[in-house]
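It is worth pausing here to work through a concrete case rather than discussing structure prediction in the abstract. The textbook approach is simple: state the sequence, then state the predicted structure, then interpret. We follow exactly that order.
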Amino acid sequence: MLTVLVIFAFLIICLGDVFSKEFSKEGLWDYGIFAVITYAAGTFVWLQILLRTKTLGITGTLWNIGSILAGLVIGVVLYNEQLSCQQWIGIIFAIAAIVLLTA
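Step two, the predicted structure:
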């Protein structure tokens, strides 16, 4: 059940990221409002995850790194954003952090 919650939360946050990007491109407040709503829903699911794990340090770190990687994938795949070599190295460190924190 926890894995399902985490996946669901990341999908909600990804949707919020898409609305945020569209808001930044178009300037339409509809996108901004949808972003706030989806981020609030994602936070609610995050609280449910935290309630079950009861470990803020590890869970929070994994949540933040996962959100960063999800936003990165959205930027690169949907919006053709480019990454520098230094940014790729940062991504490798983020993935290494996930591996080390979940080992």
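Step three, interpretation. Residues 2-102 form one domain. The chain has one domain: 2-102.
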